[in-house]
Amino acid sequence: MTNDDQPELNLKQKLNLETGKLSWPELQTYFARGVVIIVTPACDLIEVAVQLSEDNAQLIEQMINKGEIIRANDEHAIHWLETSPSFWSVVISPWVLVQEITEPGTELNL
């Protein structure tokens, strides 16, 4: 099968394939650079990545105003240092979007 025979992946499919798990120690470097964006569990991580990638400023601004996406801060880092969570993550350069993988009852109120 040649490349011409394969359907081209859309952006959402590509981002889904690029999503992976990170631990807090792996995320610390990105946090130190100030490029970690938290996506709340109420949102679809991949859909947020698509909107950011497509520079949908109006929707991103609405999500920021609703608190659905938040730039990680020192309070988050302290919580993560104490709890050592894992994250689903995807990179939309220069940003690293993360969504904490939580057990029921361990959610951080953002």
Write a structural description.
The structure is a single chain. With 110 residues, the protein is an alpha+beta fold. The chain has one domain. It contains five helices and five strands. The protein has a five-stranded mixed β-sheet with strand order 1-4-5-2-3. A hairpin with a 2-residue loop joins strand 4 (86-92) and strand 5. Helix 1 crosses helix 3 (45-53). The longest helix is centred in the first third of the chain and has 10 residues, at 24-33. The termini are far apart.
Number of domains: 1
User: SS-based structural class?
Assistant: alpha+beta
**How would a textbook summarize the main sheet?**
5 strands, mixed
The general outline is: globular
Low-confidence stretches: 105-110
Distance between the termini: 48 Å
Placed side by side, the strands forming the largest sheet appear as: 1-4-5-2-3
Fraction of helical residues: 40-55%
Q: Report Rg.
A: 15 Å
How much of the sequence lies in strands comes to 15-25%
Number of strands: 5
Number of discrete helical segments: 5
Topology:
Blueprint (H helix, E strand, L loop, with lengths): L10 H8 L1 E4 H10 L2 E4 L5 H9 L3 H10 L2 E3 L2 H10 L2 E7 L2 E7 L9
